[in-house]
């Protein structure tokens, strides 16, 4: 219920903000989008989201069918506690931030529906930690000890991804979108406002 409430509040806030720009009749080249992930990227690893993954996109139309943009996403997941080979009953948390630059190709299917696809190059920072289930104390393991994750793995790395999406225009400057692809979430839903 909390997740749905947060998503609705974000959508409402963007809708109210967009009314400031609704009076303008000049064509807009800039977009601001905010979205929520339906499940985290690490869903297959058995991690559950403490709250829905969030993303913000800023875009500029270079031409009618091509745009460039910036992306920021944040995810906070926690795996179920497990008993590992060394006798520790512990759980893993993963706070991930993604910053990136996106390029999109767009195509109008109807006056209201547009499809798009593209790629992103970015920087992925994952802060992975292990905690004891009972005391919630941080577990620090030796680099050569058995561990549920590699404690020596770099927290940050350059990443790239591809995505496909669809936007549906609700009003002159407001659209909703759905997108699939590797990023802060495998599937995202959100709202886009032209400013």
Q: Care to describe what's here?
A:
The chain has one helix at 2-18; strands spanning 30-37, 47-63, 66-79, 82-83, 89-108, 113-132, 156-169, 174-181, 187-194. It is mainly beta and 195 residues long. It has one domain: Porin. β8 and β9 (187-194) form a beta hairpin. The protein is elongated. The chain starts with a helix and ends with a strand. Mean pLDDT is 80; it is low at 1-26.
Order of strands across the main sheet? 1-2-3-5-6-7-8-9
Helix content: under 10%
Over the alpha carbons, how many angstroms does the gyration radius reach? Answer: 20 Å
Derived from helix and strand composition plus strand pairing, the structural class reads mainly beta
CATH architecture assignment name: Beta Barrel
**Average pLDDT metric:** 80
Output the CATH class name: Mainly Beta
Total count of helical runs of at least 4 residues? 1
Low-confidence region ranges: 1-26
Largest sheet: 8 strands, antiparallel, barrel
Strand content: over 45%
Primary descriptors:
195 residues, mainly beta, Porin, eight-stranded antiparallel β-barrel, 1 helix, 57% strand, elongated, disordered N terminus
Secondary-structure map:
Elements: H1 2-18, E1 30-37, E2 47-63, E3 66-79, E4 82-83, E5 89-108, E6 113-132, E7 156-169, E8 174-181, E9 187-194
Antiparallel strand pairs: 1-2, 1-9, 2-3, 3-5, 4-5, 5-6, 6-7, 7-8, 8-9
């Amino acid at each position: 219920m909390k997740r749905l409430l947060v998503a609705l509040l974000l959508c409402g806030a963007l809708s109210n903000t967009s009314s400031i720009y609704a009076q303008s009749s000049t064509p807009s080249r800039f977009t601001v989008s905010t979205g929520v992930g339906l499940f985290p990227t690490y869903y297959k690893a058995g991690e559950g989201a403490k709250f829905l993954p969030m993303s913000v996109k800023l875009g500029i139309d270079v031409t009618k069918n091509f745009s460039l943009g910036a992306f920021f996403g944040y995810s906070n997941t926690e795996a179920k506690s497990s008993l590992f080979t060394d006798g520790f009953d512990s759980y893993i948390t993963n706070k991930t931030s993604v910053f990136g630059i996106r390029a999109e190709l767009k195509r109008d299917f109807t006056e209201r529906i547009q499809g798009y696809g593209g790629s992103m190059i970015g920087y992925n920072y994952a802060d992975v930690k292990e905690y004891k289930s009972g005391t919630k104390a941080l577990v620090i393991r030796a680099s050569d000890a058995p561990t549920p994750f590699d404690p020596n793995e770099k927290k940050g790395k350059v990443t790239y991804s591809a995505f496909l999406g669809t936007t549906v225009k609700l009003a002159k400057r407001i659209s909703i979108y759905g997108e699939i692809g590797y990023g802060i979430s495998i599937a995202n839903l959100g709202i886009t406002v032209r400013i």
